[in-house]
Design brief:
The complex is a heterodimer. By secondary structure, chain A is mainly alpha-helical. Chain A folds into two domains: 43 residues, no CATH class; 110 residues, no CATH class. Chain A is built from six helices and three strands; from the N terminus they run H-H-H-E-H-E-E-H-H. In chain A, strands 1-3-2 form a three-stranded antiparallel sheet. Chain B is an all-alpha fold. Chain B has one domain. Helices cover 78% and strands 0% of the residues of chain B. The chains are: A mainly alpha, B mainly alpha. Chains A and B meet through helix 1, helix 3, strand 1, helix 4 and strand 2 of A and helix 1, helix 2, helix 3 and helix 4 of B.
């Protein structure tokens, strides 16, 4: 069943990318999406994510993400353009209470796009964050500064 | 519409430029990747969205938005892979770095 959902999603992406409704393109799209889903369909996470409540939270999450992305870029621009660079880099550890793998991955992605932080690795519940200006080395405080804004929303989407 | 598109493209180019400048100016691999990921992701998305505003065909709009989504999802993942590989390969942090918690806990290579 998973493989069929995965094939349908692949086919939609194919149609959007080619945007050509001749029968040759559509046939090729069906063949390619079936072929891909034969191998990678098992990795698909299932249809559970597509419930209305989760999609609502996702739509709420997107503007927040774009906002943090723009803030991050202005932050990088300021640090790079200043003649004497203001950096104090280091790798700190934070702890998350998200349980699912997809939730952790999205948290890591979001942290990479926020100002001055970048995920290095995830081991169990702990994320290792490279921080361009380390303001605290304590685990609890660092978690509060870096991850708390995203964690609350991601919990509604993925758990 | 064309003026809005040009303004967004110029903003995107500015962020791309900052990202590239960061690669030259910042001291080590990790800091450089920070600047590269952030600057280049938003800069490229800016250029793509500018093209959306400038073109009159729906084909370009849909393709540009799909590219934006894919870029936003995949570029943090590739950065993550690069940073982890660099750390495991034993590349040192910058001399003035204050803390490295990952060094203590990382899985040792065989």
């Amino acid at each position: 069943m998973r493989k069929i959902y995965f094939a349908i999603i692949c086919f939609i992406v194919w149609v959007l990318l080619t945007w050509n409704f001749g029968w040759q393109e559509l046939t090729m799209g069906v063949v390619v999406s079936l072929f891909v889903s034969l191998f990678f369909g098992d990795k698909f996470l299932g249809i559970k994510i597509f419930s209305p409540v989760r999609i609502g939270w996702m739509l709420y999450y997107i503007p927040i993400w774009i906002y943090y992305c723009i803030v991050a870029n202005i932050d990088v621009a300021k640090r790079v353009l200043r003649p004497k660079m203001l950096i104090k880099p280091g790798i700190v550890k934070i702890r998350t209470n998200l349980k699912t793998d997809l939730g952790k991955v999205m948290l890591a992605n979001s942290i990479t796009m926020t100002p001055g932080t970048m995920t290095v690795d995830i081991l169990g519940d702990e994320l290792y964050i490279h921080w361009i200006y380390v303001s605290t080395e304590q685990e609890v405080e660092a978690t509060k500064i870096i991850a708390s804004a995203f964690e609350k929303i991601l919990k509604h989407i993925f758990e | 519409m064309i003026i809005i598109g040009i303004v967004i493209i110029v903003i995107g180019l500015f962020f791309d430029f900052c990202g590239s400048l960061g690669i030259v100016r910042l001291p080590d691999v990790y800091n450089r990747l920070q600047a590269a990921t952030k600057g280049v992701t938003l800069g490229t998305c800016g250029i793509l969205i500018g093209i959306c505003f400038m073109s009159h065909q729906s084909v370009f709009v849909i393709k540009c938005l799909l590219c934006c989504i894919l870029l936003m999802l995949t570029s943090p993942i590739s950065t993550h892979a690069l940073v982890r590989a660099a750390h495991i390969a034993g590349i040192k942090l910058w001399d003035k770095s204050v803390v490295d918690k990952y060094e203590e806990d990382k899985p040792k290579p065989e």
